[in-house]
Amino acid sequence: MVVSYTALLGDVWRKISESINPTARELASRYGYLDYAVARYYEILGGWEYVKELLEAFEKPLSRTIRVNTLRFRDSREVLERLEKLGYEFSKISWESFSYIVTKTGRIPLGATHEFLLGGYYLYRGAASLISPLALLPKPSDVVLDSAAAPGGKTTHLAQLMGNRGVIVAVDVSRERFRALRSNLERMGVENVVALRIDSRKIPGIFGEHFTKSLLDAPCTGEGIIQIDPTRKTKTSFEDLVRAHKRQVELLTAAIHSTVPGGLIVYSTCSIAPEEDEFTVAEVLEKLNNVRVVKPSVGLDLEPGVTEYFGIELPAQLKLCGRTYPHRHGFEGFFICVLEKV
Ligand code: SAM
C-alpha cells in the first residue's frame, strides 16, 4: 500500500493538538513560543528536561564561524594572522579543514575587513552550514547541482573542496539573493560555477539526468535558527509547515530526477521540524522508489533522524539521517539526509 506522508500530516496536527498539556503551555508562555511548537519539541526530544535545554540554548547567541578560502589564500595562517592583528581570536573546528569559531571579536566587523573583501574567508552565522557540502563528498571530477544556492555559502564551499575544478550549476529563483550569490562567487574567486536564476523545479526538464551529485539546501521555516531570528518563535503556523513540506517535496523530487543513477543527493534544512525534514524525505522515498538513505560521512557526531512521530511510523532507514541541536552541538538546529540514487 502506498502511504502519503503529506496526507498523514493531517493526523499529526490532530495528535499535536491533543498533546498540548499544562507543561507545554507553561514553557511556551515562559519562553514566548506557540504552544503547539513546544508540544512537538517534547515529541522530538523525549523529555521535558531536554525541551528546557533546547529552549535555553535558543536564547543564547550563535558563535560566528569563518571558513578560510584557500582559493584566494593558499596558506590559511596568513588570513588568521591578519585577523588576529585586528584583535580576533579563533578556535579550530575539528571536523572541517578550513573553518574556525570566532572566540573573541576584533576592532573591525568581520563583514568589513580587507581580508573579507579580498575573499579570504566566508562568514557564517553558525557552523552547521558547513555540514552539507562535506556530506556531498564533492570531487574535482564531479558535475554538481546546487539547486537552492543563494547567497552561496555552500556553493563557494563546494568550489573550494573541488579545488575550482569540475562544474557546479548553482540555481536560485530569487532576484535579490541571486545578486548576493554572484557577488560572493566573484569575491571568493570561484571559477567552476555556472549560475542560473530559474526555478529549480525546471532543472530536470532542461538537463535531464545529468549531475553526478546534487545539493538541495532547501527553503524552510528556519525552526533551527531561532537564536538568529526570535520572531520565528511565533510566526510559523502548522499550515506554514505543511506548505514548506510540499514545496520541499517538489524541489527534492526535481533534484533526484536531475541526478544520474549511482549519484548522491544531499537534502538539508536549518529546521528541526520533522514535518519539513523526515516527512519530506519519507514522501519522496515512497513516491520515487529509486533512492535510499545513506549515513552522512562527516567527522561529527550527529543525532539520528526521527523514525516515529506522534505514533506515526516513518521508514526505518530515516534513522540514518543526521540532526543537530543547539543544546547538544553548540550551533544551529540542522537536518541532513544523504540519498543515493539506485
Ligand atoms: N544554500 C544557500 C547557502 O548556503 O548560502 C542557502 C539557501 S536558502 C536556505 C534557500 C534558497 O532557496 C533561497 O535562496 C531561495 O531563494 C531559494 N529558493 C526557494 N524556492 C526556490 C525554487 N523553486 N527554485 C530555486 N531556488 C529556490
Task: Describe this structure as you would to a colleague.
The two termini are 21 Å apart. Helix content is 39%, strand content 20%. The relative contact order is 0.14. The strands form three sheets. Strands 5, 6, 7, 8, 9, 10, 11, 14 and 15 form a nine-stranded mixed β-sheet that branches. Helix 2 packs across helix 3 and helix 3 crosses helix 4. The chain folds into two domains: 60 residues, Alpha-Beta Plaits (2-Layer Sandwich); 214 residues, Vaccinia Virus protein VP39 (Rossmann fold, 3-Layer(aba) Sandwich), CATH 3.40.50. With 342 residues, it is an alpha/beta fold. The model has no long low-confidence stretch (mean pLDDT 97). S-adenosylmethionine (SAM) binds next to helix 8.
What is the residue-averaged pLDDT?
97
Strands, count: 15
| Biggest sheet layout | 9 strands, mixed
The tally of helices reads 14
Whole-number tally of structural domains = 2
Based on helices, strands and strand pairing, what is the structural class? alpha/beta
